[in-house]
Structure formats: structure tokens, C-alpha cells
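R.M. (postdoc): so does anyone remember the format we settled on? I'll just put the C-alpha cells first.
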């Protein structure tokens, strides 16, 4: 049975301390989940992910953005540290569906 975490990240203009606490909370919840389960994080991370070759194993090649914002970099770092894949940029979508 999958372990699902539903998130709604703070917007880009919020305080860095609060954004750090948000990702610490997610990390705690994620890390406390049983190790033998599929872990899924769903929701709005308020992140823009650039098409960076270095991060293709984590984010894929289908991002709509040319530059990552701070939230995007936080999301990438979190995903890399947990060996996760960000599926919204891994699989192709019509351009109209790439923006929220």
C-alpha cells in the first residue's frame, strides 16, 4: 500500500525560515514512513524547475521553465536526497498543462 503525503508549499515570496521548516516537516514525515512502502508526495510545491542536464535523472526533460526558482531548487534537492523522481516534469504534457 502506498504512503501518500499531500502538500501545499509556501509561495516563493515567503520567509526562507518558514520554507525551510516546511521541507523539514516533509522530511520527517517521509523518513518516518515504513521503508518497504511506495512513498508519494502529491500537491502544489510552488516550484519552477529548469531544464538542467545535471538533474535529468530526477526531473526529466519536460519542464516548462528555463530557470528554477528557490522553491524549485528546494524540491530538486529534497528529491535527490531521497532518490525520488519528480514526475510532473518527467513525462510529456501539453504546454497548457505545464503551468498552474
Amino acid at each position: 500500500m502506498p504512503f501518500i503525503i499531500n502538500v501545499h508549499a509556501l509561495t516563493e515570496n515567503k520567509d526562507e525560515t518558514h520554507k525551510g521548516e516546511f521541507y523539514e516537516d516533509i522530511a520527517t514525515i517521509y523518513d518516518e514512513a515504513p521503508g518497504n512502502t511506495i512513498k508519494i508526495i502529491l500537491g502544489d510545491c510552488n516550484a519552477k524547475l529548469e531544464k538542467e542536464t545535471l538533474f535529468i535523472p530526477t526531473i526529466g526533460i519536460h519542464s516548462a521553465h528555463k530557470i528554477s526558482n528557490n522553491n524549485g531548487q528546494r524540491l530538486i534537492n529534497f528529491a535527490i536526497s531521497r532518490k525520488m523522481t519528480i514526475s510532473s516534469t518527467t513525462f510529456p504534457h501539453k504546454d497548457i498543462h505545464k503551468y498552474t
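R.M.: ...and that's the designed sequence above, right after the C-alpha cells. Also worth knowing: The helical segments are 16-32, 56-59, 70-81. The longest strand covers residues 3-8.
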